[in-house]
Amino acid sequence: MHNIIHFEELNSTSVYSHEHLSELKNFDIVSCDIQNSGHGQFNRIWFSSNKNGGNVYISIILKPDNITHLNELTRYVASIGAETLKEYSLKPTFKYPNDILIEGKKIAGFLAESEFIGQKLKGVIVGCGINLNLDENELKNIDIPATSVFNETKTPINKDEFINKFLDNFKNNYEDFLVNGIKGEILCAKK
Description:
By secondary structure, the protein is an alpha+beta fold.
C-alpha cells in the first residue's frame, strides 16, 4: 500500500513537495490530476491534462540514510519508468539525462531534486511525469515530438493501476539501489 496524498489540482507536485518537505515522510507520494505549472529540467513546461483517464503527475518523497548513489537517482527512476512501460508492450529508450522515449517521441520525464541543510540531507523530491492517456490532439500542445501509452497502444490506461505498478517496481528495487547503485545501463536512445 502506498501513502498517496492526492489533489485534483496543484501548481505542481514538486512545488507542493518542496513547500511541505519537513512534514512529508519517506515514501509519501504527492499526486494530482492537473498541474497548472508543472515543469521538467531547466523549468521546461510540462503539458498537463486530465482527459481520457488522466496522466501521471507525481512526486515521490525520499529521505534515505545512505546517499552514496544519490547522483544516480534520476537514472534509477527512469529505468523503473521504462520497465513499467514495457509491461504495456512498449519499447522505451532512455534519453540522457532524464527522459523516456518511444521511437524518438517523449513519453515520460523524471527530475530528482535534493534539499540539504548544511551537509545533512533534508529529503529528495522525485518528480515523475508520464503521458498515459493524451490523445493526438493533446499531443500537439507539446513543443517537442511526444506520445502517450494510449497513443501507442490505442487502449485507455487505468491511471491508478499504472501508478501502483510503477511504485511497486520502484520500491521493490530501491533498497538494492541505495546499496549498489544502477546495475548495468539503461538502453539509451540514439542521438
